């Protein structure tokens, strides 16, 4: 496993995502957060759902992942939030160094 990772989650909209994003940045659990509008199709409680959502991409270190995951579970408004870690196998040295510099 590398030193860095990207963590993804989703929200209903940008307004719902903003306070969570701000809290994670202020606590230095993430270096960068990007928002993308998506359409999600899924089954929830035996019902087919099709919703517009915001996909959040967070860049951080693997060392901080457990703390980030626990914070998301605590403050995320969804009953069962998507929290997925993707290992960053390689990247530009300057960008990865910056992630390390601005996180805890």
Q: Could you characterize what this model shows?
A:
- The chain is α+β, with helices and mostly antiparallel strands.
- Helices cover 33% and strands 38% of the residues.
- The chain has helices spanning 14-26, 65-75, 93-102, and strands at 4-11, 32-44, 47-61, 84-87.
- A four-stranded antiparallel β-sheet has the order 2-3-1-4.
- A hairpin with a 2-residue loop joins β2 and β3 (47-61).
The gist of it:
By secondary structure, this protein is α+β, with helices and mostly antiparallel strands.
The end-to-end distance, rounded to whole angstroms, is 19 Å
The averaged pLDDT comes out at: 97
Question: Counting H and I runs of at least 4 residues, what is the number of helices?
Answer: 3
**Biggest β-sheet strands, sense, barrel:** 4 strands, antiparallel
Radius of gyration: 14 Å
From the helix content, strand content and strand pairing, which structural class follows? alpha+beta
The low-confidence parts are none
Strand % is 35-45%
Specify the overall morphology: globular
Strands in their spatial order, largest beta sheet: 2-3-1-4
Helix content: 25-40%
The ordered H/E elements are: EHEEHEH
Number of strands: 4
How would you summarize the topology of this molecule?
Blueprint: E1 4-11, H1 14-26, E2 32-44, E3 47-61, H2 65-75, E4 84-87, H3 93-102
Antiparallel strand pairs: 1-3, 1-4, 2-3
Provide the descriptors you would attach to this structure in a database record.
alpha+beta; globular; 104 residues; four-stranded antiparallel sheet; single chain; 3 helices; 38% strand
